[in-house]
Amino acid sequence: MPREAEPSLNERAFVLKALRENIRVDGRAFDAFRDISVTFGDEYGVADVRLGKTRSETSNLSLSSSSAATPEYSPAHRVLARISAEVTQPFPDRKFDGIFTITTELSPMASPAFEVGRQTDQETLLSRLLEKAVRRSNALDTEALCIVAGQKCWNVRADVHVLDYDGGLVDASCVAVIAALQHFRRPDVRVEGGEVTVYTLAERVPVPLAMLHHPLCVTLSFFHGGEVILVDATLQEQQISEGEMVVTANKHGEVCQIAKLGGVPTDALMLLGAVEMAVAKVTRVGDVISKALEENAQKMNPGGILAELSAENER
Asked: Rg of the chain over CA atoms, in angstroms?
């Protein structure tokens, strides 16, 4: 099985010594994300998320405390999420709920360690973390996906494609899924006499999904026995780290998930401080998504046409 190239002994010693001196190799602060860019496709429900250096035509939205501290280059990570929906039959034991599933794909284009048709441990871990963070936290109101109880419902599917990999896999994937869900619009439906009519996008204005909250993930990496904690580690930092912890929270400060899969033991007080830091970062990432959605809404609806069609549908 292919593997990522491990850092050399000199690289490992250099990174660890730099962290001892409160320096990261890419120049960021310990609690700083790489520059994050969220863009949307021409179709509803397509979100492109980039961490790090992006193409020049894409405007970067920095999460750093000051632009002066942002380095000119940082390693890149790119994830594409696509939402689709179709009418299907609900599960027999969940007659009043719709269906929501998340699938992930790590292609060799992102990293030589990923293979087509073979699910790696990293892909399994990513799927489980996204499942807990988004679906099991009830971020999407599945009851709103019900059309006719026990007969018809919406089956919403989120496909996550990792296009470039350099650390931050869980964080970027979660941002992509949440942004795509907020951007997605499903066709409008009408139920009359037990008959379901699904309207095309040309016949009626599509309907946004009902989101109960917007959970986001922040991955924390531990070094030097847990004394040093980094946010959004690069692939090199991730390979050298002694352990990782994924914190999932929303902008209201509610912690949805804490996943620490082995690694160095961490002091309880330091763990609480790390969770508080992660919750603060979730709020700032959420603001980036909201700003990107507002800019996209203005681009897709320059003259207020959708608002007029929506008023006509209500009449």
From this structure: 21
- The pLDDT tens digits of the residues spanning 118-155 come to 777 888 899 999 999 999 999 999 999 999 999 999 99
| Rounded Cα distance, 187 and 208, in Å | 9
Evaluate whether 175 touches 289 at the Cβ level (below 8 Å). yes
Torsion angle, alpha carbons of 61, 67, 73, 76, to 10: -30
Q: Are strands 46-51 and 99-106 parallel, antiparallel or unpaired?
A: unpaired
Helix runs in the chain, H state only = 9-20, 121-130, 169-183, 235-240, 268-300, 305-314
- First-to-final CA distance of the chain: 60
Region of residue 22 (left: phi > 0; alpha: psi -120 to 50; beta: else): left
If DSSP codes are grouped into helix, strand and coil, which group holds residue 127?
helix
Are residues 96 and 152 in contact, defined by beta-carbon separation less than 8 angstroms? no
- How many other C-beta atoms lie within 10 A of the C-beta of residue 292? 22
Closest of 286, 140, 293 to residue 210, by C-alpha: 140
pTM of this structure: 0.86
Instruction: Please name the helix (run of DSSP H) or strand (run of DSSP E) that holds residue 218, with its range, or none.
Output: strand 216-223
Q: Take residue 180 and report the two structure tokens written for it.
A: 């795509």
Strand partners, 231: 220
**230-259: per-residue pLDDT in tens?**
999 998 999 999 999 999 999 998 999 999
At residue 65's C-alpha, the angle toward residues 19 and 299, to 5°, is 130
